[in-house]
Every structure is written in structure tokens, then in C-alpha cells.
Specification:
With about 475 residues, the chain is an alpha/beta fold. It has two domains: about 270 residues, Rossmann fold (3-Layer(aba) Sandwich); about 200 residues, N-(1-d-carboxylethyl)-l-norvaline Dehydrogenase, domain 2 (Orthogonal Bundle). Helix content is about 45%, strand content about 10%. The strands form four sheets. The protein has a five-stranded parallel sheet, with helices on both faces. It has a three-stranded mixed sheet with strand order 4-3-11, sandwiched between helices. Strands 10-12-13 form a three-stranded mixed sheet, covered by helices on one side. Helix 6 crosses helix 7. The structure holds D-mannonic acid. D-mannonic acid binds next to helix 10 and helix 14.
Length: about 475
Amino acid sequence: MTGPTPVSRPRLSDATLATLPSAVARPAYERAAIRIGIVHLGAGAFHRAHQAVYFDDALALDPDWAVCAVSLRNPDVRDALRPQGGLYTLAILGQMPQLRIVGALRGVLCARDEAAAVLARLADPAVRLVTLTVTEKGYCLVGDRLDFAHPDIVHDLATPDAPVSAIGHIVAGLARRRAAGHAPYTVLSCDNLADNGVRLRRAVLDFAQRLDPALADWIAAEVAFPRSMVDSITPATDDALRNRVADALGEDDAWPVQREPYTQWVVEDRFCNGRPPLERVGVTLSDDIAGFDRAKLRLLNGPHSALAYLGLLLGLETVADAMRHPGLAAFVERLMREDIAPTLDVPVGLDLDAYIGAILDRFRNPAIAHRLAQIAWDGSQKLPVRLLGTIRDALAAGRPIDRLCLPIAAWMHFVRRQARDGVALVDPMADSLAKIGREATGEAEDVARFLVLREVFGEAAGEAAIVDAIARGYAALCRQSESAIAS
Ligand code: CS2
């Protein structure tokens, strides 16, 4: 036998915490003494790189706010983190990379096969806050209301004690607490949706009303659904990160996460059953966050999607690559400064110029490889909240919309290309999109095939000026992506 013997490294866990290299930051509290006070639905990388880190800081001040992280369907996070006692590594990637072990997750469950444990947690009076990152599609909305035709909602209304959706879980937990005479929990959305708390409240009330109007009345009167704006760029975990973390720790971590140094969380200060000391760990508490969430969705997420679809058409791989492409970088900066910024009601205290400059710097961060393909996921859900609102506002104000419509046209080309190449789309509307993509011919007439998707385009499909601008963009991209962004 020749060749190197594989090194067997210990697995990250409470038992190995003390032996980690001193450069790796560790929880600043006694893990055995913390208690679960938060249930988080959607245990993905964003939660673990963002809210869980604020909660980790808060636990050093108050031990009552540890998190039980719940994946609704996929057991992978549970399977990776349970053997590690919920511990995982956060890599903060800027000029000086830093590693930090986050200890805030005291429980990790998968609802699909541990349903009773999840419902018991939600019913536990020690849990006073439910947070969620289930992405745009997890809200099961059609327009601003609950989609009663959504298969998960149909399922959960038929079997409310065995829910599969986030909405079904939130309501099942609240029903149990009401029946037991316990106070409800606050429900805090941490997803990239404008007015996320307002929309979540409406969806929860729509669901509860169908189930039990008295429960709906109780929820309407007693439960707080604060709005929040979340921000930190979090590329998906890859093997490069796993290896880098294992080398630095001298231990294996099955699922580390990574993010940029910048992190922001603005939360409406309306909680119905206490809250962690958020203001002491860098969270901005505000009674009016509407301006912040719009500015972030339109100026960061909108341009992100623009970079993704245009960049992929140009054969680029990451956001930093896209920002090194002079034509695309110039396009996106003009999009932000000349087209998007004028549509915003700037919140007091936000310097728009500086905000845009900082976002562009963050996009340029060479320390992270944020794949455009990741941002391209779920376009049918993202484009309406990220770009179509801006387009409608710009049109109403008599401003030009051609540049704003180009990323929408690029998305259509992207869908067509994936369908043509037989590559599956990651999108809840993947089937209808693939069908349209396969029928598309690459001519401007294709645009009409996409515009029938009311769930995506809504009223915009009836606006001749928008339809024409998308068609112009689509035709320009058929000819040459490089020249289409040069305008
Ligand atoms: C990105 C966001 O993947 C995407 O669609 O636009 O995840 C973005 O990185 C975050 O919202 C930044 O806060």
C-alpha cells in the first residue's frame, strides 16, 4: 500500500471546543446553561450566518434565547449539525478572514420526520419568539394573500395537526398555546420581502380564519408580526469552505457557513412576549422600517438579480467576476444611481449615495465566490419584489424604464437557455417555465409567452410601455449581450 494515510480528524462538538486554536472565536457563554426561547423555521445558511449570530451574541447577555432550528423538509442540516451538538463554524470573509464557532443552536430538528417534537417546541411557553427564513416561495402567497390553491396549504388545512408549510406550523403552534392558556409567541419574518411582517400576518390570518375564526380573532388581537430587513451576502457552502475550515480548526465541521463582514438587521420593535436584547448586539430597532426594506430590496437584491441573469448570459461565474466586467459593472451602477434610486422614498438617516457605493464595494469583494447561478434561483419569485415594483414606479413618474427592463429580458433568455440545454431550473414554477423556455425561439415574440405568467408579472403584463421595453431588451440580447448593456 502506498499513498498518504487519510488523517482522521475529530468532529467539532462541545467536547472539542476547548482545544480549538485560539484564533477561532468561541461562544462567550456557558453552552450548558442556555435555554431554548426561539424556534427558527428554515435552518439554511442565511439564518446560520445572520440571525443566529446576533442571537449568539445575545446569549452572552441573557441565556434564555437559544434557538431550536427547524428544517421543514430536508434533513441534511439536522443530520450534519446534531452530531456536533448544534455547533458550526461561521467564516467571515473580508480582507482579514475570521472564523467563529456559533453556539446559539441548542436544538436542530427536521419537521418532516420529527413532527411531534417541532409542535411540542412551538407549544412550549419558554419559546417566546418564532423567526423564519423560508424564502419568498415559503409564504405561499398569491399577490398579497394566502394562496388557498397551494398544495401545501390545501394539505395543512385538511390536516392542521400535521402541517408541512411554515404558515401551517405557525398556526398549529399558536392554536396549541391558546388551548393551553399560554401567551403566544412573536412571529418575526427574516425574508427578503417588502413588508414581510405584514404579509406574513395576513397569510397566517387567512389560514386561521379558514380553520377557526375564533383562533384568527385571538391571533389578530394578541400576536405581533414585526417587519424586519435582513442583509448579509451569504454564498452557499462549498467544499473549498469545508476544507479551509477543517484545516484551520484541525477538526471536521460537516456544514460551516460563510458570509461577508457586512451584516445588518433592522427590526420593528413590536414583540408580544419579550425579546432578546437585540439593541445591545447591533440590531437596529425601529418603529418604521418600510423605507429601509425597500431601499435594500431595490438597491441590493434588484441589482444582484440583474448581475446574475446578465452575467450568466455573458458567461461569467461569480458576482465579483461580473463586477470586473467593465460593461456590466457600469450598467449596474447606472441602474442603481439613475433608475432605482429616484424611485425610493429615502428613510431619514440613510445616505443613498454612500449606501449605493457600499453595496458596489460589497459586490466587488474578491474574498467570496458568490455564484451568479445561486442568485438566479427562484427568479419567478424574486423579480416581482426586486425589479417589477421599481419599473412600475419609474413608469408612473414618467422616467425611462429600458435599463430596468433589461434584466427581466435577460431572465427570459436564461430560462430559454436552461430549457434548451436540458438544465433543470431551481424555481417553484420550474415546470411552466421549462415549457415556455422549450417553446421559445429566440425571437422577440417569446416575450409574450412569458408575460402570461400572471403570478410573476401581474398588472405589468397589461402595461404596453413595460411590455415594449422588455421586448426591446429581449431583442437586443438576442443580437449581442455586450452591446445590450452598453446603453
Ligand atoms: C441574493 C440575496 O441570492 C440572492 O438572491 O440577492 O441572498 C442577497 O445576497 C441577500 O439578500 C443579501 O442580504
